UniProtKB/TrEMBL annotation:
InterPro entries (alphabetical): Biofilm_reg_signaling (IPR052155), EAL_dom (IPR001633), EAL_sf (IPR035919), GGDEF_dom (IPR000160), Nucleotide_cyclase (IPR029787), PAS (IPR000014), PAS-assoc_C (IPR000700), PAS-like_dom_sf (IPR035965)
Transmembrane regions: none
One Pfam family of this chain: GGDEF
Organism: Lysinibacillus xylanilyticus
Protein name: EAL domain-containing protein
Residue intervals of the PAC domain: 204-256
Domain of life: Bacteria
Residues annotated as domain GGDEF: 284-411
CDD domains: EAL, PAS
Length: 673
């Protein structure tokens, strides 16, 4: 049976809490769950009854209940009460009982909760009613309590509730459960969830906002419990509430402090993100205006020490005056955001307004220059993160052009940001579906003329985006944190391929590029060694290429150096890639376990055009040799370049003169040649 292993909201725990034997049946008449009292009544274990594949209605307990009646119960929104019905146990014993059947829906399927109200259990329930009375009296003296019927109408409430809610019994009885809460989307969402839980036989507990008769807000810790009224034979629900308004007010005050910039009174970036998310959820159109004070720190130096605070306060006052009825936030010391429906020409008029209303310091006007970006929702960008990125990109462009302008997101920037966002989205999918490819570019040992190593390079051709070059892919991957995923993917593929070549008798080392971001993870070395162990690849076949930026950070971060040493001790070699293009410090060459220098292709490409480049290249090769490092020149495209580099003393060359990046099978063909 397909339903037997499903999980239902009405479970054994709930069934066992009921005062009567109870079972849950699906729409085919098969038993899904039953309580302990039902097991005892029918002499049927839970395991036996769940494994029973024949129709429960047709052949077992409820032979008097016709299929038509059962279908009517399923389709009915209300509970069905049958005064007398004959049951038959597993041992063929006949039992007469009342039946209360309550239909419910779970994940689009129909079910029925059936309670068998045996006369002797009714007597027991009544006899224990004094305990229930004592319990209710205790609750009434401590908590607010409200009883509602199965349709959600209020049947009764206690004095504690009336006192807090300001209702009178005459006015509140007959009101609905939903009328006790504020009329907004958030409240509607929570109350519907509570109601759904109750109707599925589950309790609900949590903090929730309510309203008094006059519409004043108050907060309660609510416990909503499904109950059963023995006198009326009907389902009811009990709401037990504790007033937490005072503690909630304190919490809101603390949140306000956390969300407000104390110097200006504007909201901060954290609060702005929440506001923007709500506006996006409500599908409200707006312009996201990012305003940044140019050369803020220079202004502070040029004027006295009091300028800092007064400048920001006065600038904030001008934003408030100009952008009245707009939402404003302070992002950091000199950056502000205005959320407004106002037109572009009006927003740009803020610069003229500042000139007409200058900020003075010691009776001297402070020359404020503003760089601003206007990004529209939803035309330009559709998330808070995208709006921020677009604004920063726009302001960068404005500043490069001299600043003191407020401009809209350009078509080129808009297109670039949209492509970037699409790449981020598609890259997650590509990594998940293993859609990235690995190509290999060979290096030739100049002494033997043989290919001794290859560099593994990631390639991605997406069906939606098209070809994404490494120069475009890697920065985005580093920014989003997906570089770690790409690094793991590349390492695993490189190890697998190196092992294939080794087994084929080809002695080839494979180098992979690694980012400093990956090595900031203190478990990076452990992870790399784990991949080597998993693939069975010898560490001596793997080389890791790092940039000068990586080397500079590794020099200052002891734990990165330690990880590199650990990998070196296992047999992995490190190559300093793009040598000559980064930071002019050679100290890391002494500290870090670097085996090889790879001179950047920018020097190789201009080698035959400039005598200075030739001297510089020759010097770099000699530097590497003097430190007993291997030297590789990349970007070699002609025989003339190769010959000159060999005379300088390079150990290996790499570039299109040898081969462009190719598939693993093509490397093997090249080796045969």
């Amino acid at each position: 049976m397909s339903h037997m292993h499903k999980s239902f909201t009405i479970d054994e725990h709930y069934l066992n809490s009921l005062p009567f034997p109870a079972i849950v049946m699906n729409q085919d008449g098969q038993v899904i769950n039953l309580g302990k009292l039902a097991e005892q009544l029918f002499d049927f274990s839970a395991t036996t009854i769940k494994e029973h594949t024949t129709s429960f209605i047709h052949e077992n307990l409820l032979r008097q209940l016709s299929l038509e009646t059962f279908q009517a119960i399923l389709q009915n929104n209300d509970s069905t009460y049958i005064n007398q019905i004959q049951l038959k146990t597993y041992t063929n014993e006949e039992i007469t009982t009342a039946l209360l059947a309550k239909p419910f829906t779970e994940q689009g399927e129909h079910f029925v909760l059936m309670m068998f109200m045996l006369p002797e259990l009714m007597i027991n329930a009544v006899s224990s009613s004094s305990t229930l009375v004592d319990l209710k009296q205790g609750l009434d003296s401590t908590f607010m309590t409200v009883t509602i019927d199965h349709d959600g109408f209020i049947l009764e409430c206690n004095n504690e509730f009336l006192k807090t809610s300001q209702w009178t019994p005459k006015r509140v009885i007959g009101k609905t459960f939903w009328q006790l809460f504020p009329e907004n989307k958030e409240s509607e969402k929570i109350t519907n969830a509570i109601w759904r839980n109750l109707n599925n036989g589950q309790t609900w507990q949590g903090e929730i906002e309510k309203v008094t008769k006059t519409g004043q807000s108050y907060w309660v810790l609510l416990t909503a419990i499904p109950t059963f009224n023995l006198e009326t034979n009907e389902q009811q629900f009990l709401l037990i509430e504790k007033d937490i308004t005072k503690s909630k007010t304190i919490q809101h005050q603390l949140e306000k402090i956390a969300y407000i910039d104390t110097e200006t009174g504007l909201m901060n970036a954290h609060r702005l993100e929440k506001v923007i998310s709500n506006m996006i959820e409500d599908e409200r159109n707006f312009s996201f205006v990012y305003l940044s004070i140019d050369k803020f720190y220079t202004l502070k130096e040029l004027h006295d020490q009091h300028i800092d605070q007064s400048l920001i306060v006065e600038f904030t006052n001008r934003i408030k005056m100009y952008f009245q009825d707009s939402t404003m936030a302070r992002i950091n010391e000199n950056d502000f955001v205005v959320i407004t429906p106002l037109s572009e020409w009006f927003i740009q008029g803020f610069l003229s307004y500042l000139q007409q209303h200058p900020i003075y310091n010691s009776n001297v006007a402070v020359p404020i220059s503003i760089s601003g970006g206007i990004t529209r929702y939803p035309e330009d960008q559709t998330t808070f993160s995208q709006l921020m990125k677009a604004s920063i990109a726009t302001i960068t462009t404005v500043r490069e052009a001299g600043g003191d302008k407020i401009v809209s997101l350009s078509k080129a920037t808009h297109k670039a940001l949209n492509r970037k966002a699409l790449i981020e989205k598609r890259l997650l999918q590509a990594l998940d579906q293993k859609n990235l490819k690995v190509l290999y570019q060979p290096q030739i040992d100049v002494n033997t003329g043989k290919i001794t190593a290859v560099e593994a390079l990631v390639r991605w051709e997406d069906e939606v985006i098209g070809v994404v070059s490494p120069d475009e892919l890697i920065p985005i991957a580093e920014e989003t944190g997906l570089i770690n995923n790409i690094g793991s993917f590349m390492l695993e593929k490189a190890c697998e391929q190196a092992l294939i070549w080794k087994k084929a008798g080809l002695d080839l080392k494979v180098s992979i590029n690694s980012s400093v971001r990956e090595f900031r993870d203190k478990n990076m070395a452990k992870s790399i060694l784990g991949t080597l162990a998993k693939t069975g690849c010898p560490a001596s076949l793997i080389q890791i290429e790092i940039t000068e930026k990586f080397a500079l950070e590794a020099e200052a971060a002891t734990f990165i150096t330690q990880q590199m040493r650990k990998l070196e001790n296992e047999g992995i070699a490190f190559i300093l890639d793009d040598f000559g293009t980064g930071y002019g410090s050679f100290r890391y060459m002494q500290i870090l376990p670097i085996d090889t220098l790879k001179i950047d292709k920018t020097f190789t490409s201009s080698l035959l055009k400039s005598e200075k480049t030739q001297k510089l290249m020759h010097g770099m090769v000699q530097l590497g040799k003097s430190m007993e490092l291997k030297v590789v020149a990349e970007g070699v495209e002609t025989a003339e370049q190769a010959d000159l580099l060999i005379t300088y003393g390079c150990d290996a060359i790499q570039g299109y003169y040898i081969s462009k990046p190719i598939h693993a099978e093509d490397i093997e063909a090249l080796l045969v040649k």
